[in-house]
Amino acid sequence: MRLCDSLLLVLPSMEDHRTVPDGVQDRQGGGRPAAPREAILSHARTLGLDAAAITRAALPESARRDLGLFLDQGRHGEMAWMETTRARRGDPRVLWPEAVSIVTLGLNYGPGATDPLQGLAHRDRGVISVYAHGKDYHDVFKSRAKALARWIHGTFEAEVKVFVDTAPVMEKPLAARAGLGWTGKHTNLVSRRFGSWLFLAEVFTTLDLAPDSPHADLCGTCRRCLDACPTGAIRPDDPYRIDARRCISYLTIEHKGPIPRELRPHMGNRIYGCEDCVAVCPWNRFAVPTRHEGLLPRVELTAPRLADLVALDDARFRALFAGSPIKRTGRDRFVRNVLIALGNSDRPDLVETVLPLLDDPAPLVRGAAVWAVRRLELDVGRLSALRARSEATESVPEVQAEWEGSVTECLAGPGQAT
Ligand code: B12
Ligand code: SF4
Ligand code: SF4
Questions:
Q1: Using a 6 Å cutoff on CB, does residue 195 contact ligand 3?
Q2: 349-381, pLDDT tens digit by residue?
Q3: What is the residue with the minimal CA distance to atom 2 of ligand 2?
Q4: Could you report how far apart the first and last alpha carbons of the chain are, in Å?
């Protein structure tokens, strides 16, 4: 979910960090635990990590093949960084040749009894996906993963590197190989204990640790996630594969330009991320609410009013989303998403909140405002007047094209509009 920047732990002299946790009894002379694997997994728990398991620093050939297919078919869309890092992503040893083992880690962000999809019915409100309700998970996770890495380094004199979606690492196949769970048909890792609500991170190390066994695929005949996807990004006839270009998570977070017209009506009121496929997974019945304070939902992000969000300027956007992953999209992309949601709201009374955005300095926002106005403004005469006013000043072809598309749809009549 984040552009790749690797995080190398540069640690001070090893002697300074020779701390061994309480509860690890079996030690060699010098205070080093005799069973490093068990000590590491135990220490991970002590640090508040919800799941930990070990695998070799290698991926099966099938993971490289699937990554290659995904990229060759252009399913990554505008995420060019996935293409440019292909070799490192497909092989942990290309990323770091000295790596021998990987401790894969999971952090539970389970929403508990709250149904993450209930907000979809309240069309005047925006739905922000659970993963972005609290603080940026990268920050919450990184401090714990770094603490574990520092401890491994200090205790076993091994080199370590920490990744929390911060480098070209195939986190899901590695976690599946370590047995944290299996790759579900929705393409994410499913855990027996935490359902589909685990964030992933890794500590790469030069230590030679006995690996855990991979987890069996327990999806069986279930296809709930495939049926739940609103855009066909994952399809019943093509499980375990995603076309990111159609995924609402990609469209609302990663995609920089105008959202393809044909997908807009399917986005509903999802304004940041999507997790319909994740939320319907039956294995979530075993999930427990997150215990990490930083991941708990901020009340103002659980059902925000679209009318408030669409009025955000840059300064207020930054203030509202300080410490949140949402700040990464920037104000313009976020307001674009809110305008699409307004266009899908079936609330003509909200058109007045959209009109000021027709004059926004950002063409991306102006274009989305045109679409929203078209969907909310039922009076053809007023729509034509708005277009005429815009044509007198609009110089950006993409925004002009939005007017063109909207009027074509308008002429096509009800039911034809997208
Ligand atoms: C790019 C990316 C996206 C893209 C593409 C998603 C995707 N599924 O790849 C977009 C923007 C759409 C996205 C969305 C989301 N993401 Co994301 N994303 C990533 C990222 C950075 C890279 C993933 C990647 O390499 N994809 C490329 C494909 C080829 O790799 P893959 O899915 O691992 O492919 C394997 C399987 O699909 C399988 N496979 C593929 N084809 C086939 C065919 C068959 C027949 C079989 C059997 C298997 C199979 O094999 C492949 C290799 O083993 C990772 C972090 C990381 N560094 O790994 C986070 C990550 C996957 N995202 C995550 C999350 C939480 C999400 C969202 C839920 C966020 C949200 N609420 O909006 C959504 C979920 C959408 C979804 N259904 O996947 C978490 C998932 C945690 C978990 N439990 O799995 C990760 C791991 C981040 C993290 N550190 O926690 N994401
Ligand atoms: S996150 Fe949403 S759009 Fe993306 S694959 Fe899952 S259900 Fe489909
Ligand atoms: S919803 Fe069903 S098919 Fe999809 S990942 Fe969960 S168990 Fe597998």
A1: no
A2: 999 999 999 999 999 999 999 999 999 987 889
A3: 274
A4: 28
